Prior knowledge:
- The chain is of the alpha/beta class and about 140 residues long.
- The chain has a domain of about 90 residues: Nucleotidyltransferase, domain 5, CATH 3.30.420.
- Helices cover about 30% and strands about 15% of the residues.
- The protein has a 5-stranded mixed sheet with strand order 4-3-2-5-6, covered by helices on one side.
- Helix 2 crosses helix 3.
Amino acid sequence: MNFRSERRDEVDLDITPLIDVVFLLLIFFMVSTTFEHNSEINITLPSSSKDVTEKKPNAVNIGLDAQGNIYINGEVIGNDKIETIKMALSDALVGLKEPPIIINADLNATHQSVVRIMDAASQLGLVKITFATQDIKDEKINL
């Protein structure tokens, strides 16, 4: 009779495949993450007490800085004449069907420049025009 117990092998846990999977997940999330795209244009937006709306992916963004420079989707246009604005807007509208126009006008931009942009948009038949503002936080109103 054999009274010796069977010798059991020790259980080894190989964590190499686990590390490989973790690294693959890390690489996947790093590649698929989208980052917030901040504009390089220095614009101070006016304040509003309304809720901030979401950015729309197919919208045409028009920027107007304090010096009167006009940017359409981040690209500066040569001058502020209505015909130039219309040509740049029509180039930005290629492939888009009735997109909303978002005007990001600087707090110190002239009224005339904003009116020119709105006039050019209306001449192209664009009627969905909104203005970007920043949210008022802890601002005291003196009456």
